[in-house]
Amino acid sequence: MNHIYRVIWNAGLGVYQAVAETGKAQGKGNAGKVARSARRAALVATLAGLGSLGSWGSTAWAQSVLPTGGAVVAGSGTIAQAGKVMTVTQTTAKMAADWQSFNIGAGNTVNFVQPSSTAVALNRVLGSDVSVIQGALNANGQVFLVNPNGVLFTPTAQVNVGSIVASTLGISTADFMAGRYKFAGDSSNAIINQGNITTLNGGSIALIAAKITNTGTLTANAGNVLLGAGSQVTLDLGGPVKLQVTQGALDALIENGGAIKADVGLVYLTASVVLHIY
């Protein structure tokens, strides 16, 4: 049976958590109770669905406030942290990094310092946590965030980048380094944006997953906003066909209840559904 979960603010921990639909948000007076309950739950909330977006599986998302376990696996760069700020300094045109988790808590910041606006950084999550972005993500170039467990940009998320790609489908390091942006995988998890994602003029926002929803704001003036739902998707930001779903997914879905802004740019939404006939 499918369960419906919603995201509430946990005053005791200062984070968002997934709770059952019948769960109640806690005010300041209940902070102690929230904290005790959170400790009993080992600070982990299980996502088994979010609204009408279908299952996130049994994936649990941890409460880390900055990405953990980062290692550069192709190209070159460094990762440094000072307090609530993590800085990834990229020194080659393309760089790939693997992470155990990639979360940004409220009031925390991840900055990508890149050689140019055309530089691209791939960030691939190997752990089992959903990426929960509540704070700030900044980059002067292009950032890819790949997590098969799902990606959630909460209402407090502030993303300001040259371009961004968020996907639950995988991409090989070899394809990425060669500029072949071919995403594939069997993840049924979702990408959800409730925050504000903004690119530089002429930049691109690409959300690639089996299920995508936007209730926040996506802004890519003079650029591209590309939403592709399927199990195999090819992204070509330099070609006439910017995004192509080459293989469908079961129950593929795109929902937009927010704002998409691409003045003198391109907005493209495409979903391909696999039909099972019995």
How is this fold's topology laid out?
Blueprint: E1 5-10, E2 15-20, H1 31-40, E3 45-46, E4 60-61, E5 71-74, E6 77-82, E7 85-90, E8 94-99, E9 109-113, E10 120-125, E11 131-133, E12 136-139, E13 142-146, E14 151-153, E15 158-161, E16 163-167, H2 173-177, E17 181-184, E18 190-193, E19 196-199, E20 204-209, E21 211-214, E22 217-219, E23 224-229, E24 232-235, E25 243-247, E26 253-256, E27 259-261, E28 266-271
Parallel strand pairs: 7-9, 8-10, 9-12, 10-13, 11-14, 12-15, 13-16, 14-18, 15-19, 16-20, 18-21, 19-22, 20-23, 21-26, 22-27, 23-28
Antiparallel strand pairs: 1-2, 3-4, 5-8, 6-7, 17-24, 24-25
Residues in helices, as a percent range? under 10%
H/I helix tally: 2
- Integer-rounded radius of gyration: 18 Å
Q: Indicate the structural class.
A: mainly beta
Sheet with the most strands: spatial strand order:
5-8-10-13-16-20-23-28
Per DSSP E runs of 2 or more residues, the count of β-strands stands at 28
Distance between the termini: 21 Å
Largest sheet: 8 strands, mixed
Principal-axes geometry comes out as: globular
Overall pLDDT score: 81
Strand percentage: over 45%
- What is the element string, with H for helices and E for strands? EEHEEEEEEEEEEEEEEHEEEEEEEEEEEE
Query: Segments where pLDDT lies below 50 for 5+ residues?
Result: 1-62
